[in-house]
């Protein structure tokens, strides 16, 4: 298994380019199922999660080719409605194929998504939406099967503004008969990007980005070319790298309106952030102060940045209170941070962090994607050498993060083979 070796203490400098958003590209790939024309995703990120979803589509006879950074997706020859269960269980976002498959073929059988380290992550809201559109849903033996002669538009209220359920139901409704109104919908930028993509294909969707989305069904959708939005979580992660190493760097290829909550909290801590078109300069060299964080659905503070900011707060004098309202178990990084000398106490969905003078480098594990990113950040600031294992979690959502960090001056190395 691979690992990262990081020697902490380097100041960072220079510029980093942000890649396309993992959480935009995954629903966009699924949305290509809705048309038998070829679709092209430009500047697609080469991430493990993207590779897994591509293999899920290949398992139902779609073809996906990568030609100089573009991903050409052809679903015209899909020949079955039951993707490979092993692949689906590897990555929860495979479940985003269900909506488009229901819309195009009227039936689908898929393995229930595997749980993951950050909580049980049910799919009840997805299935409630599909049933409201007229699908007959059956669950058994680890699979969910859905059948619907024709999906009929309906009014659907989401008990929680679930990102995946909003995306899945939106994709199911675009070819349904009549109008669907999705209330208490999620409004993340990735959902807005998906709605833009579907409308370019010929769908009729209004209100994406608000809590009420209206979809009027159309007969068919055509193939298009699309450049996904940049990854606001990757950008936030590098901004936090600057803050935790008390450095100044430039972050290129961003949409700053997607970063509002992250910019607000880093500024509140004392970072100086200057925005310019599609880039920003963050200066974390001042003495920073402790802030409280409460994760909320967009445009609240993103849960996917919680672990990274917690690593930063471990190095800032004062007391920070973190409240994780989205997932019931997203503090897996706490025990790993404590191995490095962090002072953190957990009480249910709250964590209280007392900043310490120095974190100490040591051997830690990446327990999930964003926890892994947090461990890298902590190691960049820690005294001495850290070894981060299970870095396959990190490769799911960051394309060769070590190359981008090395370019900024970090002392980080990926060790390919690991002696046990
Ligand atoms: C998306 O996951 C993201 N993944 C996650 O990013 C992100 O953390 C999450 O949204 C919240 O912003 C992708 O977009 C591929 P949810 P998703 O449905 O859609 C509960 C990362 O690090 N829920 O909004 O699975 C659920 O249990 C990943 O890049 C139900 O109860 O998130 C959770 O507590 C991690 N029933 C909450 O809603 C359902 O049917 C939020 O889940 C669905 C969800």
From TrEMBL:
One Pfam family named in its UniProt record: EPSP_synthase
Residue ranges occupied by any Enolpyruvate transferase domain in the UniProt entry: 7-405
Major localisation: cytoplasm
Residues annotated for UDP-N-acetyl-alpha-D-glucosamine binding in this entry: 92, 121-125, 304, 326
Assigned EC number: 2.5.1.7
UniProt keyword annotations, A-Z: Cell cycle, Cell division, Cell shape, Cell wall biogenesis/degradation, Cytoplasm, Peptidoglycan synthesis, Pyruvate, Transferase
Modified residues (2-(S-cysteinyl)pyruvic acid O-phosphothioketal): 116
Pathway: Cell wall biogenesis; peptidoglycan biosynthesis
Function: Cell wall formation. Adds enolpyruvyl to UDP-N-acetylglucosamine.
Protein name, UniProt field: UDP-N-acetylglucosamine 1-carboxyvinyltransferase
Organism: Clostridium grantii DSM 8605
């Amino acid at each position: 298994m691979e690992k990262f070796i990081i020697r902490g203490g380097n100041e960072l400098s220079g510029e980093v380019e942000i890649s396309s958003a993992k959480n935009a590209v995954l629903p966009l790939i699924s949305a290509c199922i809705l048309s038998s024309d070829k679709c092209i995703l430009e500047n697609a990120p080469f991430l493990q999660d993207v590779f897994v979803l591509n293999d899920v589509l290949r398992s139902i006879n779609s073809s996906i080719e990568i030609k100089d950074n573009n991903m050409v997706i052809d679903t015209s020859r899909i020949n079955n409605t039951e993707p490979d269960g092993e692949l689906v269980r590897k990555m929860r976002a495979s479940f985003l194929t269900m909506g488009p498959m229901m819309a195009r073929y009227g039936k689908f059988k898929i393995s229930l998504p595997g749980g993951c380290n950050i909580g049980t992550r049910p799919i009840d809201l997805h299935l409630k939406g599909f049933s409201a559109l007229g699908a007959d849903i059956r669950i058994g033996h680890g699979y969910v099967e859905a059948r619907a002669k024709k999906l009929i538009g309906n009014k659907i209220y989401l008990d929680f503004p679930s990102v995946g359920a909003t995306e899945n139901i939106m994709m199911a409704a675009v070819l349904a008969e009549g109008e669907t109104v999705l209330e208490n919908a999620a409004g993340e930028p990735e959902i807005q990007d998906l709605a833009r993509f579907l409308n370019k294909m010929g769908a009729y969707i209004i209100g994406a980005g608000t809590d009420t989305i209206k979809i009027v069904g159309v007969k068919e959708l055509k193939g298009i070319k699309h450049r996904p939005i940049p990854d606001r979580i990757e950008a936030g992660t590098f901004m936090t790298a600057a803050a935790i190493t008390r450095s100044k760097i430039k972050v290129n290829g961003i949409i700053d309106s997607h970063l509002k909550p992250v910019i607000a909290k880093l500024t509140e801590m004392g970072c100086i952030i200057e925005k310019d078109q599609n880039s920003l300069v963050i200066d974390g060299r001042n003495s920073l102060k402790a802030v409280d964080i409460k994760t909320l659905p967009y445009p609240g503070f993103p849960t996917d940045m919680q672990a990274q900011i917690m690593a930063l707060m471990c190095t800032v004098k004062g007391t920070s209170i973190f409240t994780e309202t989205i997932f019931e178990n997203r503090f897996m990084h706490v025990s790993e941070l404590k191995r490095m000398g962090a002072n953190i106490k957990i009480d249910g969905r709250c964590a209280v962090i007392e900043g310490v003078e120095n974190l100490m480098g040591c051997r830690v594990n990446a327990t999930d994607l964003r926890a892994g990113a947090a461990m890298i950040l902590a190691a960049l600031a820690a005294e001495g050498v850290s070894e981060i294992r299970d870095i396959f979690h990190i490769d799911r959502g960051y394309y060769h993060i070590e190359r981008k960090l090395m370019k900024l001056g970090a002392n980080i190395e990926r060790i390919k083979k690991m002696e046990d």
